[in-house]
Specification:
Helices cover 38% and strands 21% of the residues. With 418 residues, it is an alpha+beta fold. Bound molecules: histidyl-adenosine monophosphate. GO terms for molecular function: ATP binding; histidine-tRNA ligase activity.
């Protein structure tokens, strides 16, 4: 019997897996440059953290969580997202004495029991950033700009940014009531009617054409913002424009998690199959209190690593596979192999990336391995050269070949590769 990865999951294998590493680094780099510190939290938490934090009425909590009882009788859930965990950790460890916000970034695996399809997986990877403890439109604008810069650094040109404000505890209840009034008058199925009572904003997100057609006249949250939320949102927009960030106002943008207040945003790309969100986030001023902490107004985002790779592939941004090493050694005999082994070790210790032919495949197989590695240089170790204390250094792009004394190989290569 053989096994396959569970439904909705897959393996990133070389060489394509290099793309994942590159994307993860690039998406995190702008946040790291802006003073965000790295946080790592467990892959599982108490189930209550997510049901209270993410929200009892969300799809994530009602349908998608991997929840089980551990051997100690605790209800445990594999994390479906990172924000609740980060907030839990900050509350648990206490705020550092320094200035707020506490700025944190993370990267890891998340788990949702979703209907599996291209770009939608049951195990996926995110890079996230959260700024905790400050209510300041400049922080919202900073985070959005960092995500925009991350996508841009990867060369992506097809990422669009949608921006909205969902109001606050002051103005949201009146909007919610107005929306419920409107929705109750529509021709909707029983399940959707129930949703109107529990989470009416989610109805706006219903993708079915017969529902969308009825929503044209729905009240918009942006028409119901209180003065403070309006001014806050205006300032976020002004700062984004000043930073050269292009966005589209979308008063219908609602997100799949309940903790959002004020600023919400989503990054979309059209190369992802049935869905289009490569990333998203927003402000969550009430989350800390929802999970038993002090008032800590906060904002953050999470960017999907797998989906960003798909978006880049759709834009043809990875034409050639990256080289695995710079240098590849090809020994022509048993004694040469011992020398090659020592030489490769020396090169690696000198900071070069180097590999060699293993397994006694003969010269042809070894040269093929050198080609496949993508290395720029091959070191060919034959008996005659070795007797003279030298190896042949072959530039695999020009096929030019020169003898180099063994003792000078590392320095010669360093010079050529710098
Ligand atoms: P989210 O919108 O649920 O937000 O997820 C963020 C991103 O993760 C999505 O835009 C998408 O790229 C990726 N993603 C989500 N689910 C899947 C899936 N099943 N398969 C592949 N990729 C997926 C959050 O998770 C919030 N914690 C973001 C946040 C941080 N808000 C404030 N701070």
């Amino acid at each position: 019997m053989s096994f396959q990865a569970p439904k909705g999951t897959f393996d990133w294998m070389p060489p394509r897996s290099e793309r994942v590493l590159a994307v993860r680094d690039a998406l995190a780099a702008p946040a790291r440059r802006a003073g965000y510190g790295y946080i790592e939290t467990p892959a599982f938490e108490d189930t209550g953290l997510f049901s209270r934090g993410v929200g009892e009425s969300t799809d994530i909590v009602t349908k998608e969580m991997y929840t089980f009882e551990d051997k100690g009788g605790r209800s445990i859930t594999l994390r479906p997202e990172g924000t609740a965990s980060v907030m839990r950790a900050v509350i648990e460890h206490g705020l550092p004495g320094g200035p707020l916000p506490v700025k944190l970034w993370y990267s890891g695996s998340y788990y949702r029991y979703e209907r599996a399809q291209k770009g939608r997986y049951r195990h996926f990877s995110q890079v996230g950033a959260e700024a905790i403890g400050t209510e300041d439109p400049a922080v919202d604008a900073e985070l959005i700009t960092l995500a925009v810069d991350g996508y841009a650094s990867l060369g992506l040109s097809g990422v669009r940014l949608l921006l909205n404000s969902l109001g606050c505890a002051e103005c949201r209840p009146a909007y919610r009531a107005a929306l419920q009034d409107f929705l109750r008058g529509l021709d909707l199925d029983e399940q959707t009617r129930q949703r109107i009572e529990i989470n009416p904003l989610r109805v706006l997100d219903d993708k079915r054409p017969q529902v969308q057609a009825q929503l044209t006249g729905a009240p918009l949250v942006t028409d119901h913002l209180c003065g403070a939320c309006k001014a806050y949102h205006e300032e976020v927009r002004t700062l984004l424009t000043a930073a050269g960030v292009k966005y589209t106002d979308d008063p219908r943008l609602v997100r799949g998690l309940d903790y959002y207040t004020r600023t919400t945003f989503e990054f979309l790309h059209d190369g992802l199959g049935a869905q289009s969100a490569v990333g998203g986030g927003g402000r969550y001023d009430g989350l800390s209190e929802m999970i038993g902490g002090p008032p800590l107004p906060s904002v953050g985002w999470a960017l999907g690593v797998d989906r960003t790779v798909l978006a880049m592939e759709a834009e043809g941004l990875f034409d050639a596979e990256p080289a695995t090493v710079d240098v590849f050694a090809v020994p022509l005999g048993e004694e040469a192999k011992r020398v090659a082994f020592g030489l490769v070790v020396e090169l690696r210790r000198a900071g070069l990336s180097a590999d060699m032919a293993f397994g006694g495949r003969g010269v042809k197989g070894a040269m093929k391995a050198a080609d496949r590695s993508g290395a720029r240089f091959a070191l060919i170790l034959g008996d005659r050269d070795l007797a003279a204390g030298a190896v042949q250094l072959k530039d695999l792009t020009t096929a030019e070949q020169t003898a180099v004394p063994l003792a000078e190989v590392a320095d010669t290569l360093k010079g050529k590769l710098s």
